[in-house]
Design goal:
alpha/beta; globular
Length: 290
């Protein structure tokens, strides 16, 4: 089995629609794919309707968290999307994205960059607006060559010239909320230092003691030494180890299935979840559309 547990669609900051994502997952030879858009589950219904036969969908979301001033992301899998407390927290984070993005546009204008809110809104479309959409606008204007180059202190990186904070969930609260909604939690790309400051191993140990289920080890932002270190940490703390592409379509260079999760780990995730269950593809009429 080939299992990719971290992918994004146009419901947040990916460039593939949910339907295109699941069809692309089949074309990439995947057996299981997770749709984990930022702070939203809005793409799940479309993905399920288009799910090809032979592909299983894991529903989820990537929650925006912050601890001790450090941004971190929590992958939440197979939770009940209608559980009131978790739904309210996701909406709180998502609703703060628009004023934040508008504020970043204003800061860019102060720096002489002619980006407009209309441009960013066009790029975001129906998705949950975020920094990658602003970064894409900078690429369109020729300010930076790639989206990744916009995530530096000069531009949109944490604490950078254009950075504006948004509401982010305390990770211990995120674990509690997801668990209460029957879900499973995995700390996404925990050592992705290119993105900014990362949390310490002692904090990861505290998260594990609070119920964190796993850490994402095999990821494009972790080199071989980092992956080996994280595997040892996971073993010491009794955490599951996952791997995934963090696919964003054309917005990033990674491809579907670039890194994958061991089937036994996937089985354990599904065993722990009680809020929702993986959805097997039936190859219905929507799945056959191209």
């Amino acid at each position: 089995m080939r299992i990719d547990l971290h992918c994004h669609s146009t419901a947040s900051d990916g460039t593939d629609t949910p339907a295109e994502l699941v069809r692309g997952a089949t074309a990439a030879g995947l057996d299981v794919v997770a749709l984990t858009d930022h702070d939203t589950t809005r793409g799940h219904d479309e993905a399920i309707a288009a799910l090809p036969e032979g592909l299983t969908l894991v529903t989820g979301a990537e929650m925006s968290c912050r601890i001790d001033g450090i941004s971190m992301h929590m992958l939440a899998y197979l939770f009940d999307p209608e559980e009131p407390a978790l739904l309210a927290e996701r909406e709180l984070v998502r609703d703060d994205r628009v004023p934040r993005a508008r504020g970043m546009v204003a800061k860019l204008n102060e720096l002489g960059v002619p980006v407009t809110w209309e441009q960013v809104a066009r790029i975001a479309g129906d998705g949950s607006v975020g920094r990658p959409h602003v970064a894409t606008a900078l690429v369109e204007l020729g300010v930076v060559p790639t989206v990744s180059d916009a995530f530096t202190p000069d531009w949109l990186g944490d604490g950078g010239r254009v950075w504006i904070p948004k509401h982010e969930t305390d990770p211990f609260e995120a674990i509690r909320l997801v668990k209460a909604a029957g879900g499973v939690t995995v700390f996404a790309h925990p050592a992705a230092s290119k993105r900014g400051r990362t949390v310490s191993e002692s904090v990861i140990a505290e998260l594990a003691a609070a119920g964190l289920d796993g850490i994402e080890v095999d990821h494009m932002d972790h080199d071989a030494d980092t992956r080996a270190r994280l595997r040892g940490l996971a073993r010491d703390l009794g955490l599951l180890v996952t791997g995934s592409s963090d696919y964003h379509g054309s917005r990033k260079t990674c491809v579907l299935g670039e890194y994958t999760t061991d089937p036994e780990v996937y089985g354990e995730i599904t065993r722990r979840a009680t809020g929702a269950f993986p959805v097997p593809g039936t190859g219905g009429s929507e799945a056959l559309r191209v």
